[in-house]
Amino acid sequence: MMKIAVFFVGEVQDAGFNASALAGAEAAAVEGLAEISIISGVRYDHDAIGARLAEVVPEVGGLVFVGGQGNIATPEIAARYPDKKFAIVQGEKTAANLTSYDVLQEESAFLAGALAARLTQSGTVGHLSGHRVPPGLKGRAAFVAGVRHANPDIQVLTGFCGTQDDSSVTKTWAAAEIAAGADIIFTMLNNARPGAIEACREGRARQIGNALDWVDVNPEVFIASAIARIDLGVKGAITDMVAGIVPDTIAHLGLADGDFVSLSMGDEVPVATKEYIARLAQDIRNGTCTVPNTYDGPEFQP
After folding, report:
1. What is the 3-state secondary structure (H, E, C) of the chain?
2. Mean per-residue pLDDT pooled into runs of 10, the chain (302 residues)
3. CA distance linking residue 129 with residue 106, whole number of Å
4. What is the architecture, at CATH level 2, of domain 105-228+261-286?
5. What is the pLDDT of residue 176?
6. CATH code 1.10.30.50 for 3-104+230-257
7. pLDDT value of residue 190
8. Strand partners, 66
9. Which segments of the chain belong to CATH 3.40.50.2300?
10. CB 124 within 8 A of CB 182
């Protein structure tokens, strides 16, 4: 049986992308697709990532790197080990022995922006993320575009606070956006989400989560959640790796490809608004609505 390492930056139980990815790795192990080892707790630092990869790769036949942080380190290690197989989930690099799988979280982020524009009472909404990695940047761009698609008059406060895991920082940023007028904030965070939740409770603002279904977890705070099935991306990467399949282009996994992304909405969202979001999702599926992945507008600072 092939030995495959699934590599995480940060902790796996992060209530976000890593947790979803871990579920995919565990499902692959339960199904007996491969002998799976989990590598986690690696610092968000290029040298630390490279050093840990150098330790792990000689012991396995393949490695799946979870997160956009792998776009630099994984091609380097793949070039050093041409006889082994590599994949990046949420990546954008390919090589003879490397492929990338990109769950199009930006599509659900676009829907989240459209919903925020429809629901805001103040005319101002917020976005808060941590690290400036490609998936986070594309998600931010899509959220802002979704807001503008639904109502170009809505103001968007957007920022990257520099951490996915420090709740004291995210509380400060979220509170600042609320103080500046945002009554709905779209958060792309991991372990640091509790800080934003606390700020929303104190500031009487609502939040749109990401990755997991936060409406199901905390409907009091979360009006919606931009779900991204990273678990399906990880399991697909492992399945292809075992089968010897190495796509020569990035495997994009979005609304048009199955249940990879969606927008969960709370019971209080009006039926007409839910129907509007459903039509918008269909427009994305059939290609009549294009989701931008770049943003060059102003940045919010607390």
Report:
1. CCEEEEEEEECCCCCCHHHHHHHHHHHHHHCCCCEEEEEEEECCCHHHHHHHHHHHHHHCCEEEEECCCHHHHHHHHHHHCCCCEEEEECCCCCECCEEEEEECHHHHHHHHHHHHHHHCCCCEEEEEECCCCHHHHHHHHHHHHHHHHHCCCCEEEEEECCCCCCHHHHHHHHHHHHHCCCCEEEEECCCCHHHHHHHHHHHCCEEEEEECCHHHHCCCCEEEEEEECHHHHHHHHHHHHHHCCCCCCCEEECHHHCCCEEEEECCCCCHHHHHHHHHHHHHHHHCCCCCCCCCCCCCCCC
2. 96 87 97 97 93 97 95 96 97 96 97 98 97 91 98 98 92 98 96 95 98 95 97 97 93 94 98 98 97 96 92
3. 13
4. 3-Layer(aba) Sandwich (3.40)
5. 98
6. no
7. 85
8. 8, 89
9. 3-104+230-257, 105-228+261-286
10. yes
Which residue type does 43 have? R
Q: Which two tokens stand for residue 78?
A: 């793949």
pTM, two decimal places? 0.91
Amino acid at 119: L
